[in-house]
Amino acid sequence: MRKWWQDIIIYQVYLRSFQDGNGDGIGDLPGLISRLDHIKTLGADTVWVSPHYDSPMDDNGYDIRDFHKVSPDYGSLDDFRRLVAEAHKRGMKIIIDMVLNHTSDEHPWFQAAKDPTHPEHGHFRDFYIWQEPKWEKGERKRPTNWTGFFGNPTWTYNELMDEYYLHIFSKKMPDLNWRNKAVRKAMKKVLRFWIDIGVDGFRLDAANHLEKNWDFPDASPGYEHFSSLPKHHEYLQELGEEIFEPHDLVIIGESGGASTKEALQYAGFDSEEFDMLIHFGHCWADTDSKNTLTPGKWAKGEIDVPKIKKSFARWHEALQGKGWNAIYWHNHDHPRIVSHYGDDARYWKESAKMLALTLYLLPGTPIVYYGEEIGMTNVDYERLEDFRDVEVFTEYENFRANGSSHEVAMQALRDRSRDNARSPMQWNGDKHAGFSQTTPWMPVNKNHVHINVKDQLEKEESLLKVYQRLLSERRKEDVAHGDVTFFGLEHPETFNYLLRAKTCDYLVLANFKETPLEMEFPIDPSGFRLFLYTSDRKRAEKKATSFGPYEARMYKRKR
Length: 559
Ligand code: GLC
Ligand code: CA
Fold this sequence. Notes:
By secondary structure, the protein is of the alpha/beta class. It has helices at 29-34, 36-42, 77-89, 108-113, 121-124, 181-197, 231-247, 263-267, 305-319, 337-340, 348-359, 390-401, 406-416, 453-458, 463-476, 537-542, and strands at residues 10-13, 46-49, 53-54, 66-70, 93-99, 130-131, 134-136, 139-141, 155-158, 163-166, 201-205, 250-254, 276-278, 326-328, 365-369, 483-487, 496-500, 504-510, 517-518, 529-533, 546-547, 552-558.
């Protein structure tokens, strides 16, 4: 049976950077409401809003202090209600970001948990994960040597308790103890609160980290002891059965590193956990394992195109006919796609269009990340102070400790940090890019003078126009339910596929790299007409087998 959320097109908004509505330099709900029409004109009909809750903003709102309150930075609960009403009035849906794994250390639960004299300490202590220190040669040590996702140790000592609490993200984000039934009950209440307000779904943050290995063995970094452990499925099923299923919501789970072995468990049609998941299988296909100065995701290497294609192919195979896929390039935790897999200088336009063509005719539910539709690039910051992300500062210190120069460390931040995807939306070429009347909370990219919405609305062949055409084509031809065949998965430069839609077939041929190449049609070309392309039409028609840097073409044939 067809579900409503199989036909939606999602647009992800990083609230803090989308549109400032009250002139304080911070994006907010009234600002977002004023831009719903942009999202609609693009062709999307569903907005995923990054956390809007009350928060000390250590991690821009993923550290929640009060689940029932809107951050004063973003507006009020009435503004939120208005967002839902305004979206629904336009036939659009609202998905909110829900953080199940942790709270802020300023949340009243943690305030009670960490203080043995607090009247509610007894109830709240076990909302979090506490362990006694390890003592070695008279020295107090952390319970394990694990490293968290922001590059810091996962345990912080609390004097009042004389114990350590676990946090797999920043030390201001203590992990909740999902083994505790009272935690699950409290979180269900939070979910119900927002369902009653009228949200259409949730994007569940860090959803595969809910269970931990309570034997607490040493391991470095130790991710396997707090990621994708079997029991987290039980918690998700419990939520699904009691909350998600009865309300016909759309549930998108973030499960970084999830393998296709678990695909059906998460997002199979019979699964009660998610409707679709975000797994990042194709997101870091260009790391250099030999780089020890700025290691891991920070080490920029050659792009492994087969790895990207195979991830898409593997997930489609795992879920085709049995479950549902979300399709996306990146989100607020990655570099900007055109800077990452394309070229944000010489071939900016070609590569941005190529990336659009290679993604948006794949089946599943697409998620467009704000600014992607105009080809926003990585930040151009010269100074460490221009960065904002909590992760940047721990990692900068780590890079320096590994022996990186300041310049090498800064380059890694400019290439790979999450701040790249979080700079203010570029609406026009004015001083603050039309984002705000005043200095924004985070500097606007200088290239907003030529990369902006206003300019691209005026130009016929702009990237924004390509997005509009692709998304409207998707909808018209029911591409979400199409049937995909990938060609040449092992080829190091091409990204080619055939999509059989309702009444048409689409053939996408792309050169994913800068070096020009020759390629033949992988199938009989009869009946196919050139429909979208990244260079000029004449060239594409005359030299159908030769592809310039990042050149891509989409052909269409009526069946
Ligand atoms: C998710 C979010 C990320 C956040 C983290 C902790 O990975 O996408 O932005 O920092 O969870 O909540
Ligand atoms: Ca504001």
